[in-house]
Amino acid sequence: MSQDKSDVKTDLISADLLAACIHCGLCLPACPTYLVTGRETESPRGRIYLLSEYSQGRLDLTPRLSEHIDSCLGCLGCQTACPSGVQYEKILSQARPILAQQRAGWYRFVLRSAFSRILPEYRFLQQLGRLLRFYQKSRLQGFVTEILDKLSGSTVQVSMADSPSYLVPPSRNLFAKFSIWQKFLPIVPQFKPLPQKSWRTGSKVATVQFFSGCVMDVFYNHVNHACMRLLAAQSNVVERPAQTCCGALAFHAGEVDITVALAKKNIEYFESTQGEIVVSAAGCGAILKEYAHLFVDQLEWAERAQRFSDRVKDITESLNAGQFSTQPKEFPIVVPKKIAYHAACHLAHAQNVHTQPTTLLRQLVEDCKTLACQGDIDGRIPVVPELVPLKDNEQCCGSAGIYNVLHPDMALAVLANKMEAVEKSGADLLVTTNPGCMLQLEAGIKQNGLNVEVKHLAELLDDFYCGQT
Length: 469
What we know:
By secondary structure, this protein is α/β, with parallel strands linked by helices. The protein has helices at 15-19, 32-37, 44-55, 63-70, 77-81, 88-101, 105-118, 122-137, 140-151, 174-183, 215-219, 221-233, 248-252, 256-271, 282-288, 299-310, 315-321, 345-348, 355-374, 403-406, 408-425, 435-447, 457-465, and strands at 197-198, 207-211, 237-239, 277-279, 312-314, 338-341, 386-387, 429-432, 453-456.
């Protein structure tokens, strides 16, 4: 049945943005969904073509067309690879609200409730974290997993793709989806509230504001503590002001009004503060740096949002610009032998932060060499790690916010290629900078039986420079 387009705002997709694509195909090797399906409709140029046809009235927005667009990870690898400068991020941002209108009423209600009522409520999230921790600590998780695997018809595994043309089968039933979702749950740490202010003795270089995030602070609370210690170790006064959810997940789902409301709250919270706004999660940082784009028709808010965004820095940007005040002789030796770096899409492609994480890793290696030259320290033999290359390290792992929840089969197929690269790297530690990437990579490593640890880059630096073992 044809879609009635009278209630759909087709003018939200800019004809100029769509026309910029010359359909050369150089984006194809950078698109994870194209690589695992081999389908043109699951590629950037294919999606742009479909949106162009829809915008010009030659195609209706059928469920099938919507699925082709909605299956995009939003990793923006294509935008980095494009020689014509196609602004795919803007195209996708304009398309997503249209797709949101096509969702079933109950489904959209659940998503909007999560984005507007659950994620911004920190106390609720903390309680949810405690329940998940109890669930994981008890025998209940193993029992539920066994039941779900039986009801789904087979054990769902994160298997490796045999070739780039690997086709993605849909999950056979809801039980299979629940079985997959369980595998994406990270081990929830015991929650420890972050200090409102943190500093070290010595000269104070600057005051920085720490943005802890919502999901990040529940599932990876220990990473946030590590970030605050690292910032303090560079002689900063670190403050954590009142804040709310960044709105990234709502924005990716096309619920822009929720993102705008959350953005206004964060802007107001931070306007009375001074210094950089340092973010521990790449996904949060990407949307925080783009707040001004949410207020194109509200000049006053656009200016306030731009001032806010100009202050936002990823934790790797901030640490790379500073220096650690501790001396090498005080560093504990806790680093592994081989380290590989997976670049989070929202750091590399959305924020264009490519070199800072690897610069920090190389500096860590040099500091380890300095320690090794000093010989035995406190009965410990210094270990000099090796940075090993990870093939296509800037290619998406399949997490993409809540993509692995909404599209579990495609997420697993994309993850399979990443796991193949991790295994071939020979690394025993995989570092990244985004919570979604961490839980996705942890799930893949566990299911494939790889002896590889996953850490946020800040955890590794904290182990070395702050002595948190």
